[in-house]
């Protein structure tokens, strides 16, 4: 994992349809990746 804060494990979540929460969809965080 690379990113601005290497000492902490970042947490995130996946929203399948963000249009229900946002008028404009925010950009994806480039430091998060989806694990299967």
Automatic annotation (TrEMBL):
Biased composition (Basic residues): 1-11
InterPro entries, sorted: TraI_2_C
Residue ranges constituting the Putative conjugal transfer nickase/helicase TraI C-terminal domain according to the UniProt record: 2-33
Keywords recorded for this protein, A-Z: DNA-binding
UniProt KW Transferase keyword: no
One MF term in the entry's GO annotations: DNA binding
Region (Disordered): 1-36
Keyword DNA-binding recorded: yes
Domain of life, per lineage: Bacteria
Pfam families the UniProt entry points to: TraI_2_C
Protein's name according to its UniProt entry: DNA-binding domain-containing protein
Source lineage: Bacteria, Pseudomonadati, Pseudomonadota, Betaproteobacteria, Burkholderiales
């Amino acid at each position: 994992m690379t990113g601005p804060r290497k000492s902490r494990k970042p947490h995130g979540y996946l929203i399948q349809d963000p249009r229900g929460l946002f008028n404009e969809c925010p950009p994806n965080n480039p430091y998060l990746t989806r694990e299967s």
